[in-house]
Amino acid sequence: MANLKTEDLGDGIRLLTLSRAPVNALNAGFLGELEVAFRDANEDDAVRVLLLNSDLKVLSAGMDLKEASEFTDADQTAIVDGLNATYLELYRMPKPVITVVNRAAIAGGMFFVLASDFSLADTGAVLGLTEVRVGVDFPICAMEIARAEMPPLTFKRIVLSGQNVVAEDAVPMGLINEVIAPDALMDRALEIAHEYARIPQLTFASVKTQMRKSIVDKVTKVVADKSDPKRHGWFNEETLDAMSALLAAATKK
Predict the structure, then answer these.
(1) Is 0.85 topped by the overall pTM?
(2) Which of 120, 166, 167, 185 could bond to 179 as cystine, CB 3.0-4.6 Å?
């Protein structure tokens, strides 16, 4: 897969590195690659832990707004299906998932953090769900993960304000587990991954499934039935103007 790199680090730890330059922007094709990689990690008995990171300047900046501004109705359906299927595959993985955030995990990229079991960010990182500022709402899997994995007050603030937060604030808000200096980030992530690799696999899988089963069952049914209403016109009359404004602001920086 051109946009992903995999490496087995020993002790059953698989490193999956996102590498779609320049910012791991999500589109239907890239989401499809990620879904397959997550499924492969789950089905490979040699994999005990999935360690997710990026070799670019961010973990992921979310959807490619320039590409999205030209979406047809069919493109909108494809990206909603891709987001639901990919996040579901990651969220229902019974093996430990450790996510490393270098610099940023924004919008769609933030769900790699929320769907993980342990997350670390460097001291300069920012995190957030900017969908409301982009003029789009959430496909079902994204919304259910956000609701389940954030404390209620954090959930309301992050989802409804669309504002990013710095890593140091993200820990007390319940968004990530640890903030680590950039030069020590991967060493600490590997230390955590080795700790999780020593947990009995069947028991971990059983407990994690207990924790997430109600959400996984709900989303699985909607994905299988293709009944997410966002499949039939994700954008609204505000979306393109909102995207254009954000793109213009980014160009000025």
Answers:
(1) yes
(2) 167
